[in-house]
Amino acid sequence: MIRHIVPFRLTHAHGSAAEADFLVANRRLADIPGVENFELLRQVSPKSNFDFCVSMAFADQAAYEAYNTHPAHVDFVQTRWLVDVADFMEIDLTE
Amino acid sequence: MIRHIVPFRLTHAHGSAAEADFLVANRRLADIPGVENFELLRQVSPKSNFDFCVSMAFADQAAYEAYNTHPAHVDFVQTRWLVDVADFMEIDLTE
Q: Domain range for residue B61?
């Protein structure tokens, strides 16, 4: 199991319609085959500048790669992530 | 529930005795009251420079603060974390 964790901050104002619209689109990643335990969480530590965090899990590297190359993910990255996200980082965790 | 996630990198070489010793000490944080779902994981994304990650959960902010000020945590930070850790970041996630 690989846990994929991506804290991020949007270009949009808190509580804006643009923020809400992005979050709806972001949650649709949960429907991509192989995505398990999808969560869209708030980042609340004052020691971090990120406001949100996506957490999801994959059974193995093959499932992860299938997600990465899935058209719905590629489209989301191109049309939403690269447009709406001001800053992010990625970590992948395993036992 | 608050999930506290801390990816980090040690000053020690991979596979060294110093690394193993630190990880044993790190795992003892799981014994501090209020710490739930403690995990010490490997960070495997090539997009990140961190090598490990601690993940733990707290029922609420009071439990989190009790952990932060617990003598075993304060001692670990002073005698191990500030000595052995080369780089880290913290995120706290909640619904």
A: 2-93
